[in-house]
Amino acid sequence: MGRGVITALFATLLTSGVVAEPSQLNLRRGVTDISAQVYDLHMTIFYICVVIGIVVFGAMLYAMVFHRKSRGVKPANFHESVRVEVAWTVVPFIILIGMAIPAASTLIDMEDASQADVTVLVTGSQWKWHYKYMDRDVEYYSVLATQPEQIANKFNKGENYLLEVDRPLVIPTDKKVRFLVTSDDVIHSWWVPDFAVKKDANPGFINEAWAKVNEPGIYRGQCAELCGKDHGFMPVVVIAKEPADYEAWITEQEGIQRKAKEEEQKLLAMNMEMDELMEVGARVYQSACAACHMPNGEGLPGVFPALKGSAIATGEMTKHIDVVVNGVSGTAMQAFGKQLSLKELAAVITYERNAWGNNTGDTVQAKDVNALMTGK
Amino acid sequence: MSNAAEHLHHDEHHDHKPAGIMRWLNTTNHKDIGTLYLWFAFIMFLIGGAMAMVIRAELFQPGLQLVDPNFFNQMTTVHGLIMVFGAVMPAFTGLANWMVPLMIGAPDMALPRMNNWSFWILPFAFLILLSSLFLEGGGPNFGWTFYAPLSTTYSNDSTALFVFSVHIMGASSIMGAINVIVTIFNMRAPGMTWMKMPLFVWTWLITAFLLIAVMPVLAGAVTMVLTDKFFGTSFFDAAGGGDPVLFQHIFWFFGHPEVYIMILPAFGIISQIVPTFSRKPLFGYASMVYATASIALLSFIVWAHHMFTTGMPVAAELFFMFATMLISVPTGVKVFNWVATMWRGAISFEIPMLFALAFIVLFTIGGFSGLMLAITPVDFQYHDTYFVVAHFHYVLVTGAIFSIMAAVYYWLPKWCGKMYDETLAKWHFWCSLISVNLLFFPMHFVGLAGMPRRIPDYALQFADFNKWISIGGFAFGLSQLIFLALLIKASRKQGEPATDQVWEGAQGLEWEIPSPAPYHTFETPPMVK
């Protein structure tokens, strides 16, 4: 009966004013045993609050209606009662203990990341995620796939606007997957609501979390900790596949990444033409550099330096390669050496040296970049 | 008491005050300084509110329309800083300046010259902060919580101005707090024993101790940010042996007591207003005092509940969860006491009471979401979403700010000698009440559905609610212009004359002096029975 009333009340609360699907109003139950427990804890504490609210606000409303001066009532003069005061201290305390026990038990389960079947290193950086499978030779960056024109309201927005990435993380279902979470620059927070996993990525430290997903599917989340300008534009997308499908996928990826490395070695022996470098470079620049240095190379004055006409982009070539490959410590300039391939690095540096009127005429080749990286 | 009143009336004939601007620059009078603080807070409230309007305009629909993300981040940061340090805290200090001496029968604050100084450095602090927005690269954009290393290695050079302005705000708050403590300890009228002090005085005394305890911690935190950024230290840089999470521990060791600094005086105000309009003494006076003190003490051992996702040991998470849940007990006692005060009273619904009733209900809703946030496993889902934004705006806007508005309506007739404009006041209350809930209630829903805070653009599923939230925001902002009109009328001394007691059920020394309160009061201390 009581439960029915509360459910009815909650239902009215939800449907009042705006008609929307439940998923837009409440926490999701999620797809792991832990996320279901979290959801149940959430609903329990919510119902406790609703009941206390009904009692307290009910008493208040009663007094406001029946103890009004305009009804001609005479005020009573009582102002203390030890019995009542002890009661409303002790009863909430007991309710809290009742709530604390299941919460503590869920929490202890959540923090036990031992005996994982698969381990993924998740590294945040401004403003993308990097995934590295610790027991396989696979690693890659995952960046926002929504077109800038959608954000600028020039194109229609797609169904998964701001919640889509170029390369989602892929994990197996029914296996305990451990996430090691860290950061290359500022603090980020890796969050997948359907797993009830939100863990801060702290530079210089590694945090642990885990999930055992029950259903295959695509699960979307976002960075949850303010991490600078494009904090709102670094989503998390995870695809959970059946273990056999996962195995097939990761084996294929290993093959692709091995082949790419071999290709890279071949590149060292050849020279690319300016046109090709500029074409590849423009594409790489848009995805890796434009967030800070802006598509027009002018940067954000006072925040991110301009490349157009800059001393580095028009000066000595090795210095320029060094900055792009190794970053600049103590600033927001990241080390792109491990993020981009030799070809991409060569192309983007060529692009920066020749775009926006920088016209140095230089071409940078993969072997130039490799020479700097290997110290030759 | 009639003696005292006559005597005071006599004083009125020879209050000497310089005319014009010099009166306000040089004043050491607690009433003048209180007025300065209150107007300053109101101006800051409008400026911080204008920034909130920018935020809500950008979030009115998905996509980037009006501002770029970097400026959006500056708006969320400076909005937070201004509302916390420029609006809520100075407003409470203004109320303390005006009312504490009148409530304890003191002629003025104990340290009047320091009082002048503690106010007049504030405008410079905010001038520095606001002017940084116009520099190349803009002002602070790392959130009002300025987490390192976003605020150190990755911030721009205007961070130095931010640090300096926070230092000045802190110095001002510490001086104000010292003044309150010294006044209450030394200048109570004969017979005004500790357990006879009005609750507003009690809550401010405890708040002042919290301020003295934690404002230096904030000063330490900003100084470490300054040296990390400009002088090569590595307090918060792992590469140099520091720890970015250390910053959060230090910040929240300040930040959590700070939350109570912004709500304890509100508890005091509500505990003055509810008995007056219920025509019945406050229920459980002693337990109110003890509950306030326990909340203040507990506030020092719950700070890490702001940091559950940073990766603490599970034992620490359990400790901070239990300690945080415990705070709901004394807070509950307060709410129960207010309802018991109303119970079998003879209630009337003047504007201060309407704001106080709205406070009780809406602050309690904020308390409920606070209790939900205390449950660590669920906090992992709520943390850094709009659910948190909803929570702290319920306790700070419909909590702290509603209590300040209640206090202004309650004491304005005593300050000006004229009743406020009843029609404008009703419009102000009802427009604020409806719009504030349209503004903040749906934030619970978008937060639970997964919308992170501090983002300038959002996924399409959040679009409908954000539109309503923005409409509520604009309406709430406009409603405050009604309040501005009302305050201008009141300061021009327009309106019905107020009696000395003003409200039928009002009790206490401040209601025994004439309305408007003379420039000098209680030069001869009253006797409290």
Task: Write up what this structure looks like.
The complex is a heterodimer of chains A (376) and B (529). Chain A has 376 residues and is an alpha+beta fold. Chain A folds into three domains: 2-73 and 80-110, Helix Hairpins (Orthogonal Bundle), CATH 1.10.287; 118-263, Immunoglobulin-like; 268-373, Cytochrome Bc1 Complex, Chain D, domain 2 (Orthogonal Bundle), CATH 1.10.760. Chain A has eleven helices and ten strands. In chain A, the strands form three sheets. Chain A has a five-stranded mixed sheet with strand order 3-2-1-5-8. In chain A, β1 (118-125) and β2 form a beta hairpin. The longest helix of chain A has 34 residues, at 33-66. Chain A is elongated, with a radius of gyration of 28 Å. Chain A starts with a helix and ends with a helix. The model of chain A is unreliable at 1-22 (pLDDT under 50). Chain B is mostly helical. Chain B has a domain at 1-198 and 508-529: Up-down Bundle (Cytochrome C Oxidase, Chain A). Chain B contains 17 helices and no strands. Chain B starts with a helix and ends in a 38-residue tail after the last helix. Chains A and B meet through α2, α3 and β7 of A and α4, α11, α12, α13 and α14 of B.
Topology, number of strands of chain A: 10
Q: Which pair has the most extensive contact?
A: A-B, 102 and 102 residues
> Cα distance, first to last residue of chain B?
10 Å
Oligomeric category: heterodimer
Label this structure with key terms:
heterodimer, A: 376 residues, alpha+beta, Helix Hairpins, Immunoglobulin-like, Cytochrome Bc1 Complex, Chain D, domain 2, 3 domains, five-stranded mixed beta sheet, 10 strands, disordered N terminus, B: 529 residues, mainly alpha, Cytochrome C Oxidase, Chain A, 67% helix, iron (chain B), translocase (chain B), EC 7.1.1.9 (chain B), Cyt_c_oxidase_su1_bac (chain B)
